[in-house]
Specification:
five-stranded antiparallel beta sheet; elongated; alpha+beta; 133 residues; Thiol Ester Dehydrase, Chain A; 3 helices
Length: 133
């Protein structure tokens, strides 16, 4: 997926503010789940709410105002109640790595109680991970 860097994404030096990468992870994760045939809103309506339980971000080089970054997302780990999305963000023109990171999400019932992932979702996430979406 592509993300264009706007002025609002940056600090006073025109460099992407570090916390915004977590927002980009969220967008890429949502897009990935949609590409696997599921909707986050649909899952919520059916009683599955994802909560982020861990994130990691390694900053490799700055992204700047006006650039476009490409985000590659894969599911790198799945357990019965959680999964990890790994992300690599690259500047579109040069291909330079900007950020590498991951986010682990746990499935809950909406009241904070951990629940098992739906088998259809697990299969779709595993299939999508193999395709490298």
């Amino acid at each position: 997926m592509e993300i264009r860097i706007y002025y609002e994404d940056t600090d006073c030096g025109g460099v992407v503010y570090y916390a915004n990468y977590l927002k980009y992870f969220e967008r890429a994760r949502t897009h990935y789940i949609e590409q696997c045939g599921f909707s986050v809103a649909g899952l919520m309506a059916e009683g599955t709410v994802f909560v982020v339980v861990r994130t990691e971000v390694d900053y490799r080089s700055p992204a700047r105002y006006g650039e476009t970054i490409l985000i590659e997302t894969v599911v790198s780990d799945i357990t019965p109640a959680s999964f990890t999305c790994s992300h690599v963000l690259r500047e579109k023109t040069s291909g330079r790595v900007v950020v590498e990171g991951s986010a682990r999400l746990a499935a809950t019932d909406g009241n904070g109680k951990v629940k098992r992932l739906d088998k259809g979702l697990v299969a779709a996430l595993q299939s999508g991970a193999t395709k490298g979406k």
